[in-house]
Design a protein that fits this description.
Blueprint (H helix, E strand, L loop, with lengths): L8 H13 L6 E5 L1 H10 L7 H11 L4 H4 L6 E9 L2 E8 L11 E5 L4 H6 L3 H11 L2 H6 L2 E13 L3 E12 L5 E9 L7 H14 L4 E2 L1 E7 L3 E10 L2 E13 L6 H11 L1
Parallel strand pairs: 4-11, 7-8, 7-9
Antiparallel strand pairs: 1-3, 2-3, 5-6, 6-7, 9-10, 10-11
Helix pairs in contact: 1-2
Length: 267
């Protein structure tokens, strides 16, 4: 006789917190970091050393437990937002999964990644950020000259709390307009979400109020391809402004026919 599946402690804690606040009439409600300790004690669960990882996993990596997702109304999903220092908010948002379009054309780019970087990149996220940076894909995608300002920027934003941006660029165009570009890096199984896009945009508005913010998300695809999305938040939901797919190849792998096709599309 098979043993029943043991519930994940992260799932147990977040579901218990959700149930203590949720009612059918509410589309959003707040909770605090202190509730994690209280809930773990109540459930007899050893609290994870890194409480923040519980929240991070559900905000950016993993699906919420079925006990939570089944309460969402049709076409909606529960997300977790920052609501201030050590405060968070469950909110119903439109269910709008962002995935690379299979019908979009792939653009070949001569690969300028130093071989030593390719050899020693430690993770999907770091490898992706490095390839985007060394091949100036942000410049190519946005048509703006950009410069990497900082990796893994950790800071605090009013009304949200502590956030982290994977990489942040600043740039300038031919008119002299200046930009700030927060970049998310997503591995193959990671999800693009409204939470990170919204907090990246809010951070740039607070820290760089005179610059134009253009939020970008990068994702590895099969076949050594990279998908780039320009994202925005509209009425509380994530929207794609533009999407492009790039493939980094040796210059000799770009044929004359492909160059002609790029010339036609670019004209």
């Amino acid at each position: 006789m098979s043993k029943p599946k043991t519930i994940n402690r992260y799932d147990a804690i977040i579901e218990s917190i959700f149930n203590s606040h949720h009612s059918r009439r509410l589309e959003s409600f707040e909770f605090t970091r202190l509730e994690f300790e209280e809930t773990a004690t109540k459930l007899g669960i050893v609290l994870p050393k890194n409480i923040g990882d519980v929240l991070y996993s559900f905000r950016y990596r993993n699906n919420l437990p079925k006990g939570i997702t089944k309460t969402a109304t049709k076409g909606k999903e529960w997300i977790i937002e920052g609501a201030g220092r050590a405060k968070y908010r469950f909110r119903l948002a439109s269910a709008n999964p962002i995935t690379p379009s299979p019908s979009l054309v792939t653009i070949k780019i001569p690969d300028a990644t130093p071989e030593i970087i390719t050899a020693y990149a430690q993770s999907d996220e770091q490898a992706l950020l490095a390839k985007v940076r060394y091949n100036r894909l942000i410049d190519i995608f946005l048509g703006v000259t950009t410069y990497s300002l900082q990796n893994h920027l950790r800071t605090t934003v009013k009304s949200i709390g502590q956030i982290e941006i994977d990489e942040i660029y600043v740039g300038v165009d031919k008119y002299g307009r200046q930009f700030v570009i927060p970049v998310q890096a997503k591995g193959g199984s990671d999800r693009h979400g409204v939470v990170q896009t919204q907090q990246d945009i809010s951070c740039c508005a607070e820290k760089f109020p005179t610059l134009i913010c253009r939020a970008v998300s990068a994702q590895f695809m099969q076949g050594n391809k990279i998908a780039l999305f320009e994202m925005t938040v509209e009425d509380g939901d994530i929207k794609v402004v533009e999407e492009r797919h790039y493939q980094l190849v040796a210059a000799s792998e770009i044929s004359a026919t492909e160059l002609v096709s790029y010339n036609v599309r670019g004209g």
